Amino acid sequence: MAMNVERFVWLIVGGGIALIAGLWLVAFFDAWSIAWLAGAGLALLGAGSLGGGIDSRIEI
After folding, report:
1. Which H or E run includes 25?
2. d(CA 34, CA 25)
3. Reduced to 3 states, what is the DSSP secondary structure of residue 1?
4. What is the block-wise mean pLDDT of the chain (60 residues), using blocks of 10 residues?
5. What is the pLDDT, as a whole number, of residue 46?
6. Alpha-carbon gap, residue 24 to 36, rounded angstroms
7. How many Å separate Cα 51 from the centre of its chain?
8. Which of 16, 17, 35, 49 satisfies CB 3.0 to 4.6 Å to 29 for a cystine?
9. What Å distances lie between residue 53 and 2, 14, 32, 33, CA to CA?
10. How far does CA 14 lie from the centroid of its chain?
11. pLDDT at 59
């Protein structure tokens, strides 16, 4: 793991990967199954991480 990469980059990249993986799980499994719920949770976590990484760099 490269430690010289800033935290917001890890949040954006990791959040984007988690969001995509979660959306794929939601798309391929039956609604309300365990895998579907895991995908929905992963997508929410990814979206939050992605938003947090972007928000940390915005200055008003």
Report:
1. helix 7-28
2. 10
3. coil
4. 78 97 98 98 98 91
5. 98
6. 9
7. 9
8. 35
9. 18, 10, 29, 30
10. 6
11. 85
Q: Which of 20, 16, 22 is nearest to 50 (CA)?
A: 16
With tokens 């309300």, the residue in question is 32
Concatenated DSSP letters of 28-57: HS-TTSHHHHHHHHHHHHHHHHHHHHHHTT
Q: What is the token pair recorded at 59?
A: 């200055």
Which class for 53: exposed (0-12), middle (13-18), buried (19 or more C-beta within 10 A)?
buried
Q: Which two tokens stand for residue 56?
A: 């940390």
Question: What letter represents residue 13's amino acid?
Answer: V
Residues with Cβ within 8 Å of residue 57, at least 6 apart in sequence: 8
